[in-house]
């Protein structure tokens, strides 16, 4: 077991947060069970990073609970750890995707000109057979064919539903070629700011985040190659809060920084302990909400909470249609979401349980549509790549998965980090829940 001294800031923040939640729960539990109140049990389910804990934070805010000073301090630590994780992820992705620092995607067709402006080094001699492969396919695939290992994954990725994102265009090939010619990961002529970050790559968590690291992060984030790498984040695992925190890294890393409600809503702490929160809906009714961890390894903890559930809010990040699954990079994230939804929706214990689906992260979905065609990942989608047609398509796909025709599926499109949008949806959901709960108890 990990002793306190060995914990990363993220783990420390998580442990302190769950202690604080436990304390709060004990208080709420006592309050909720006073008198003969009606308890409506609600589960928040869904895959990792779908937004369950964010919805719970919003429920707390709506209930006037706000965040305690201890929670605020924990979220500050979580934000710092989010920033460091994002920088580390991007540094690694620059090498995995073979993107050189300073790469300018707009100049992609002028590969050699771009090369000349980036590097004072003479062009390295290029092996012709390798070149022809690199110019016709993406590097990961090219490497697989060089090794004689052009496996099912790459073939599957083009035609079938739920394709996995792999850039394979002139820009990505130009990046790879320049990256190789500049000397790959080891020998690129890095600017000093990038050198600081790369040198401390493995130990950023232990570092004193002084002004020079903060400046280096600012420089790193403004690098055109890093921005291009960020634009391809559907090909690897990057937190959705990355841009929000890196756009203002200096402010968040300042020792006097105190997170706002929005900062806290954006902060990511992966759930590893099932939490129970009680909300008084009216004088006699308490909503008892369970928030679980959605990563595959966390799902074995769900079943003990399935008894007597009145409703499930199932979250799906609709923006995940072009992303790779966290736990299995050969799988599309939306397909993982849909499989998980089918297994919960059609679970015999939930035959009569109200199923409320939050198709979440509509803000990211909307932004993505301009550059990421749904049909590339879901060939059965033949409509316009618009918000209306995209949401209608996924809404139908989800509804079709329900095998109990007598059971209603309520679908909402949500933006969990936007307090006013989610409050209005949660208001409607409360009415449904109370109606259903009272009806089940013969009180309506
Ligand atoms: N832009 C945007 N970000 C969101 C939205 N909903 C959640 N997020 C962000 O997505 C990240 C993950 O959200 P969480 O609420 O932690 O996800 P979760 O489902 O609880 O994840 P697990 O605990 O791992 O199961 C956080 O950084 C949130 O701020 C949304 O609608 N829009
Ligand atoms: Mg969570």
Give the topology, please:
Elements: H1 9-32, E1 38-46, H2 52-62, H3 69-96, H4 111-118, H5 128-136, H6 139-146, H7 152-159, H8 170-181, H9 184-187, H10 192-199, H11 211-222, H12 224-231, H13 242-246, H14 249-253, H15 261-266, E2 275-282, E3 285-291, E4 311-317, H16 333-345, E5 354-360, H17 362-369, H18 374-377, H19 387-400, E6 409-413, H20 419-440
Parallel strand pairs: 1-3, 1-4, 4-5, 5-6
Antiparallel strand pairs: 2-3
GO cellular component, one term: heterotrimeric G-protein complex
Keywords: GTP-binding, Magnesium, Metal-binding, Nucleotide-binding, Transducer
Binding site for GTP: 49-54, 265-271, 291-295, 360-363, 416
Task: Give an account of the 3D structure.
There is one protein chain. The protein is an alpha/beta fold. It has two domains: 4-67 and 271-440, Rossmann fold; 98-231, no CATH class. 49% of the residues lie in helices and 10% in strands. It has 20 helices and six strands. The protein has helices spanning 9-32, 52-62, 69-96, 111-118, 128-136, 139-146, 152-159, 170-181, 184-187, 192-199, 211-222, 224-231, 242-246, 249-253, 261-266, 333-345, 362-369, 374-377, 387-400, 419-440, and strands at 38-46, 275-282, 285-291, 311-317, 354-360, 409-413. It has a six-stranded mixed beta sheet, sandwiched between helices. Strand 2 and strand 3 form a beta hairpin. The radius of gyration is 24 Å and the shape is globular. The model is unreliable at 1-5, 25-30 and 114-159 (pLDDT under 50). Residues 52-53, 271, 291 line the site of magnesium ion.
């Amino acid at each position: 077991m990990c002793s306190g001294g060995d914990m990363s800031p993220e783990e420390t923040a998580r442990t302190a947060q769950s202690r604080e939640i436990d304390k709060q729960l004990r208080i709420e539990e006592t309050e909720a069970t006073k008198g003969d109140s009606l308890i409506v049990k609600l589960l928040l389910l869904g895959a990792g990073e779908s937004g369950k804990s964010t919805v719970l934070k919003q429920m707390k805010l709506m209930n006037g609970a706000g965040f305690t000073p201890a929670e605020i301090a924990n979220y500050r630590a979580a934000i710092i750890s989010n920033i460091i994780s994002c920088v580390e992820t991007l540094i690694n992705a620059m090498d995995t995707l073979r993107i050189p620092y300073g790469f300018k995607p707009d100049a992609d067709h002028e590969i050699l000109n771009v090369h000349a402006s980036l590097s004072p080094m003479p062009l390295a001699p290029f092996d012709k057979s390798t070149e022809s492969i690199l110019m016709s396919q993406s590097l990961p695939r090219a490497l697989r064919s060089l090794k004689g290992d052009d496996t099912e994954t790459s073939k599957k990725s083009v035609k079938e539903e739920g394709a996995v994102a792999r850039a394979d265009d002139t820009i990505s090939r130009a990046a790879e070629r320049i990256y190789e010619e500049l000397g790959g990961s080891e020998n690129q002529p890095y600017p000093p700011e990038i050198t600081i970050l790369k040198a401390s790559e493995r130990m950023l968590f232990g570092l004193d985040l002084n002004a020079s690291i903060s400046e280096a992060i600012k420089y790193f984030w403004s690098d055109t190659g890093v921005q291009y790498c960020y634009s391809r984040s559907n090909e690897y695992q990057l937190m959705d809060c990355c841009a929000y925190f890196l756009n203002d890294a200096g402010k968040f890393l300042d020792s006097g920084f105190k997170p706002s409600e929005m900062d806290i809503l954006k902060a990511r702490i992966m759930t590893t302990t099932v939490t129970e929160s009680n909300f008084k809906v009216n004088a006699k009714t308490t909503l008892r909400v369970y928030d679980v961890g959605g990563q595959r390894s966390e799902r074995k903890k769900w079943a003990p909470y399935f008894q007597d559930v009145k409703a499930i809010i199932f979250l799906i990040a609709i923006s995940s249609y072009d992303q790779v699954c966290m736990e299995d990079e050969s799988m599309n994230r939306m397909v993982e979401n849909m499989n998980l939804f089918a297994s919960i929706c059609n679970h015999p214990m939930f035959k009569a349980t109200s199923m409320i689906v939050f198709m979440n992260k509509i803000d990211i979905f909307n932004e993505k549509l301009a550059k990421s065609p749904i049909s590339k990942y879901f060939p059965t989608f033949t409509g316009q790549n618009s918000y209306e047609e995209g949401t209608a398509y996924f809404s139908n796909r989800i509804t079709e998965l329900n095998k109990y025709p007598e059971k209603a599926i309520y679908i909402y499109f949500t933006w969990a980090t936007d307090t006013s949008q989610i409050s209005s949806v949660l208001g409607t959901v409360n009415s449904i829940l109370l109606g259903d709960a009272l009806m089940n108890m013969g009180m309506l």
